Amino acid sequence: MRDRVREAVRVLDYHPNIMAQGLARQRSYLIGLVYENPSPSYGVDLQMGVLDRLRGERYRLVVLPVRSVNDHADEVVGLLRSAAIDGVVLAPPASDSRRILDELVGIGMPFARISPTQFDDIVPGVVVDDVVAAAEVAGAVLAQGHRRIGIIKGDPTHAASSARMTGYADAFAAAGARIDPTRVIDGLFTFDSGFAAARTLLDRPDRPTAILAQNDDMAVGALMAARELGIDVPRDLSIVGFDDSEIARITWPRITTMRQPVFDMAVSATSLLLDQLSGTPVPATIAHEHRLILRESIAPPPVAGG
Amino acid sequence: MRDRVREAVRVLDYHPNIMAQGLARQRSYLIGLVYENPSPSYGVDLQMGVLDRLRGERYRLVVLPVRSVNDHADEVVGLLRSAAIDGVVLAPPASDSRRILDELVGIGMPFARISPTQFDDIVPGVVVDDVVAAAEVAGAVLAQGHRRIGIIKGDPTHAASSARMTGYADAFAAAGARIDPTRVIDGLFTFDSGFAAARTLLDRPDRPTAILAQNDDMAVGALMAARELGIDVPRDLSIVGFDDSEIARITWPRITTMRQPVFDMAVSATSLLLDQLSGTPVPATIAHEHRLILRESIAPPPVAGG
DNA sequence: ATGAAAGCGCTAACAA
DNA sequence: TTGTTAGCGCTTTCAT
């Protein structure tokens, strides 16, 4: 009998109607990924991670890009409900939006936060220690002897930007130095913003001997700016990034950076979400390790500038 | 009365249940994007294009990445049906899979093909002339005087690979030259495959003075290989890519490439799909223009090699 | 203009 | 084990 059904399925080429299934069982088997898209590198790793984890699972991924999370936090939740999504992976800065988190809790939609930096009571989430990581990468530059250091921050609406700034400051303090606020420029996590910021930093006569960029796209932008000004990296200028995106290893010199396992974090976050959806208890937090990736983009400062 | 309803909606914070709506009206407001992911650059442009067109529309995007379209063509269709998708944008090489196209036609699911190269009767689709485009970029290299030219092909399972090869051959013929088959290597559209292929090409004593890569990721891989071998680009080696992805403008030297408006093509394909879904008649084909983007990665061959 | 009712295709609870 | 039935929340058709 069981076999007769199978046979009929085959003969009729029967495929269940997902929406009827969903209606009856209150489940769409769709999960969402909310993110802003400043850095393509980051977005790719993120999405690949989620998709990788979803492979073989019944769930599908709906991408919900948002222009600016902070401007449109309310829309996001409406988006989520109206998309009939079972749960959502929140990437920065959506993962730090009180508004979004509260609504999600309110409507009882499961979620997993990637790199949350506040509201620690709202779980689960996947984290790395941004502050310590930033301190380490800044420390590597300071250890080379650099003191005239420019900083290209990330998008100010992302909490990671200030967290990394704090880490930089810690490293400077530990080295008996301090950050020169006139050499700190806000970027947007994009190549172009890094390029522009670096031009500003490098156009000054007392230009920095090193630049700390808060992600790799901006670091590569800075590298391009240096190139156009005829400044040799790393001889005349050291540059470090953050993330260890693919972009950091395809340039020349390759960029020294702080590895943040975005792909793995996305996998973990997705697991956290799937577990919730299947009723499995989940830990409040999954921590991932950062790691300094030393490449050719740093060197001691030039003698004249040391 | 109408107002009383609106008021109730507000008070109860009523949100329609999409799946019930879907069940009743046989529509999920979900569209799919099927693609293989060799080149991250291409994938990003593609997806951004679709999402951009979807902004403000009711439709959401479900991403359906496929390991290898050719190995799993049958799965794809199952995926599509079971995902309750209203229509699908097919990127290469899914857009060239007879199996997939037939099934789609069979079940009556609307679709739009991006860069189809065969089965012209199956429409609609968004195209650029790969052959002519490839001929132009090869022509630019030949015009510099290069004759010992290496070629890094794309993934052989993508029809674009052979189309571009045809274009290269046309250009060689027009220049009274011919392709040296021993200098043609299959790549996979990835940075690493371009790197490996370039190493092979450059390790020979009579190494080429120019390399044609069939996309930008591989061109940048070739650039890296040259760097590691101490070969100066463009002085000792010219390199050109294809696509004009962001990756081609963030390296040094920046890569001369053939602009293929992937983003715009994705927008057009999505429009084609949305129009079908709304019952609007659509043209069989939307053509997009290619354009040679001259950058610093090419120069005349070195004298000793000319 | 408003109300009533019959599905949409499935799941889950219950009977047989 | 197999069969039956009542919803799931909406749209659409038909009556009022």
UniProtKB/TrEMBL annotation, chains A, B:
Keywords: DNA-binding, Transcription, Transcription regulation. It holds the Pfam family Peripla_BP_3. Residues 1-25 form the HTH lacI-type domain. Gene3D superfamilies: 3.40.50.2300. It comes from the Bacteria. CDD domains: PBP1_SalR. This is Alanine racemase.
